[in-house]
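Support reply, case 0932

Customer input (verbatim):
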Amino acid sequence: MFSRRLNWDAPPNPLSLLLEEKKRAGARVLDLTESNPTRAGFHYPERAILDALADPAALRYDPDPRGLDCAREAVSRYYAQRGAVVEPSQILLTASTSEAYAYLFKLLADPGDEVLIPRPSYPLFEFLARLESGAVRPYSLRYDGAWHIDFDSLERAIDGRTRAVVVVNPNNPTGSFVKRDEAERLQALAQRHDLAIISDEVFSDYAFGEDPNRAKTVIGARGALTFCLSGLSKIAGLPQMKLAWMACGGKNHEPALRKLEWIADTYLSVSTPVQAALFQILEGSTDVRDQIRRRTASNLALLREQTSGSAAGVLEVEGGWYAILRVPQTRSEEEWVTTLLRERDVLGQPGFFYDFESEAFLVLSLLTEGETFQEGVRRLVFHLS
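Our regenerated output:
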């Protein structure tokens, strides 16, 4: 009766079952996985956001498949403030970056075609591709004290059904930025194999310090067809506003945008109120980003300090909202996270959630409120000892 695209089984894993058991027992769990900024204790410019959403323009329905002019101009201004030239005509709005991926898989791939994704990375790409009757194939990120794209792995992953390469810049959860020389090699590889590049840049505003070797965005590249994705979920800490975008550049970007416009016209999913409010929301989001930067930097410094001299080590991270902790291989990752939750009431994520190629790693959210993070890390280090 049902499509084979939905032919996957996802029974509750031992960690989620134990977490439910803890909640039923009334335990106070120190959640070091919190990734929802609206639940992380940040202060939002509530009055300004609500006033922007009250714009009378929100009462008129005059849809544009690419997004309202005023909204695309606001996105163009966002890039200009970061030194990148992106014309409003290069921008197409979506309700989320997940929807943007769905549009791009529709645009680029026929059923059975493949998109290359980094490993480790966020575990959503396979589901999105399968819903579009496509498939993903991983390529490796290599760690030697810093993270790099493994271009040998990337080349080996390419075959006759490959249509695009995804990079997450900075990566989730490794926090590693694409470097300028890597971006150049990626462009050359994509042109040689006639592939598109999809660059997920939702965390690009959250760097720990500056590095002139980073490519914070690849939208200015003039080679391969390139799509750069971002949106309000991370930039303004407002995932519930449901507005994201893709900026399109490089080879054949104009016909690509026309075809994307046909796809978007089928759904018209972005609401008018948030489009009309976008300029004010983006202009007022600076303070929220600053709060997030201070929180993530403070938690990262605390994690490094508390784990110094312990059996665990913090991997190098350049940006984003997460940190990776290497723990002894005396237990599996699943055993580490379940015993931490069972015995210390501390919730972390195992590396295999993000498709790490080896063990043992824990992934912690630096977005967690400071007191919770400090106590959770203290218990974690004590548990390791």
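We compared this against your earlier run and they match. Two observations from our side: Residues 56 and 157 are 51 Å apart (CA to CA). The domain at 46-283 is CATH 3.40.640.10 (Aspartate Aminotransferase; domain 2). Please reopen the case if you see a mismatch on your end.
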